[in-house]
Amino acid sequence: MRTRPNATSREIPLRERLAALSAPCPMHPSAHRIEAAVIDWARRTGLDADPAQGVHRLAGRAFARHDTGTATLFARWLTLLTRLRREPAALPGVLAVAGGGEPGPAPVERAFADLWGTCAPAMGDGWRERFVAGLAVPDAAGFGRRLLDLAEPCLGVEVPAPLQESRRWRATTEAGGDVVTWCDALLTGHLPVPTARTAETSGRAAHALVIDRVVERMEELWSAARALPPLVGRHDLGLDASREVIQVACAFLTIPRAYLEGLLESRRYRHLE
After folding, report:
1. 251 touches 63 (CB < 8 A)
2. Which SUPFAM superfamilies match (predicted)?
3. Has domain 126-273 been given CATH number 1.10.600.10?
């Protein structure tokens, strides 16, 4: 039974509260190339890529053990989704492009068309429908889940529907999505409401409640993820396909970890380390 965090436990460094943070988090050896590629792509499509946002570092940690192209593709998507959140009026045009329409003059539409044309043709109807459905509901709570959905096209793997729909797989993606969403909310200052108590608090207390929830969900994420390898084995996918699916499952751990590291690197939350 989990004990409720108290003032004493909150004084413990976050790395000690979370076993997941005890091991070093690797950075992609070509992070500088990822940054340069994202800036170049953003200029070509008309987006503004601010290096200070650190998307190359997030992608470099999330896909540290993969090729530069995989990490760069994820960083481009992250740049686009961040911009789209700032420009919700562009969403109808983006959805029209996803439905087969031509992009308009808006940079967000052109950037989405470029990424969609790169990723969607290699993915099946199930992934395309799931991603577009999530994109069409631009709620802040779903931001992390949308990022986790991008693990499949970035890795060039589509997880079979029976696995996607299983209770353990959903538990993993939901927990990982929550960690990403709340870390992002802490970094941007737009706090979610993970518990009813948050509505009654403000300032430092509200931040502490969200951080407590991040710790809880990260623990739940690791617990759920441990059940995925045997779950994949029971679906008889074959050795190569099973390895590919496990790569996606690993991304459900590394993407939230990248956001946690970004949180600890930020000036506002460096004291938590």
Report:
1. yes
2. Terpenoid synthases
3. yes
